[in-house]
Amino acid sequence: xxxxxxxxxxxxxxxxxxxxxxxxxxxxxxxxxxxxxxxxxxxxxxxxxxxxxxxxxxxxxxxxxxxxxxxxxxxxxxxxxxxxxxxxxxxxxxxxxxxxxxxxxxxxxxxxxxxxxxxxxxxxxxxxxxxxxxxxxxxxxxxxxxxxxxxxxxxxxxxxxxxxxxxxxxxxxxxxxxxxxxxxxxxxxxxxxxxxxxxxxxxxxxxxxxxxxxxxxxxxxxxxxxxxxxxxxxxxxxxxxxxxxxxxxxxxxxxxxxxxxxxxxxxxxxxxxxxxx
Length: 277
Hints:
This protein is an alpha/beta fold. The chain folds into 2 domains: about 25-125, Ubiquitin-like (UB roll) (Roll), CATH 3.10.20; about 135-270, Cytidine Deaminase, domain 2. The chain is about 35% helix and about 25% strand. The strands form 3 sheets. It has a 6-stranded mixed sheet with strand order 8-7-9-10-11-12, sandwiched between helices. The protein is globular and about 60 Å long. The termini are far apart.
């Protein structure tokens, strides 16, 4: 967080005061000495963020694929705190051509939905059929639990959050960032480090809307249920349905909408009468 001077207007009066803002800075991730990507993030949990990104982009499949991951300590660099260097273990290679296409697809608005879903399908198949269910009352309690853990948001009002819950609604991991997708990568990176993957019996909650990119990252980690306090995008719904995931939107204290995979919640609500996924 950083303190900035501002001019506030309220009830017809102008007042100068200080305010705490969420910090946004670039982070460069290097693999084998080569720059993988530069992204804007909130400093903190950078190693989790890098691990999560490596996993959700399919570069690593397990924590043991990473030999060394540290903040850069090269004295020739002028911005050491904003560079993470990664060395993979022998035998783990990087398909740089595929990654170039992948990062282009993430940043581009010109690629059609079918193309992007096809690319994700090749990287991560649909979820297998399971009997994992979530009770509606458990879902309804998740936003308050995540909000209680959002210390950065309470101070600045400018951070998104992602939280990983078990079927009983216990908050296992939470992370904050200026970007929703960064918060998700941080959570997945921490889960990878703790040996929790695959997350087929977990719930991922995001504090904003559910975009295609968030569903893609969750699918890579095999998350069964993704919930958002706001709306999903059309492409997020399409991917969730094709991947046999459960997608919940507009999750508030008394209501929510199910856009995909309703059986996981309906079975719990009706005593098991809904068709299994």
